[in-house]
Amino acid sequence: MKKLKPTESELEILQVLWQKGSATVREVHEVLSLHKDSGYTTTLKLMQIMYEKGLVVRNDQSKTHIYQPNVTKENTQQQLVGKMIHNLFGGSTTALVMQALGSNKPNLEELDAIQNLLNDLKKAE
Q: What is the CATH number of domain 8-69?
């Protein structure tokens, strides 16, 4: 299957759909308008493009179309992080992690989760 590459605006829409499970254009637009100034028709057009690209599926049984994500959050994150590691960090996962931890100080709970992941990775070797 061809890897789908959502744009930044498409990712914002996907975030809403991942959270809600399914939504109309109006519902998505209402969430987006809380933190972004864009028109309803812009959201509609983006979601139509996303449907054509295969990023979302649409149920058009009723007058109001209901959209659902057609890509998982996990797969999308994995694809985008992989691309970022390759393009920005020369393929170095270490460089990415060092940059992330240096830029954003994790709290104790996050540090514990990171440590547990590192321990699990060491055990798997």
A: 1.10.10.10
